[in-house]
Specification:
With 76 residues, this protein is an all-alpha fold. It has helices at 6-15, 22-33, 37-47, 51-56, 58-75. The model has no long low-confidence stretch (mean pLDDT 95).
Length: 76
């Protein structure tokens, strides 16, 4: 795996921000990363499994991992 790319670090930094509206967040994703919100979340989910991401942004990664686990548990 190795080191995180600049874009991967930017995704993690962006994911640590809070937003007043989902619409504003999705618009910012499109403008900043030039991808759909769906693709952004696919990239983010992949990052959450990487130890490099945890080392770079432990608070953000742990929070998002907990949210993912809650969603998974709710679906079961």
């Amino acid at each position: 795996m190795g080191e995180l790319s600049d874009q991967e670090r930017e995704v993690l930094d962006f994911s640590g921000l809070t937003w007043r509206s989902v619409g504003l967040r999705e618009q910012a994703i499109r403008e900043r990363f030039d991808v759909s919100a769906t693709r952004f979340h696919q990239i983010l989910r992949g990052l959450l499994r990487r130890p490099e991401a945890l080392a770079y942004a432990p608070t953000t990664v742990k929070r998002l991992q907990r949210l993912e686990e809650r969603r998974r548990a709710a679906r079961s």
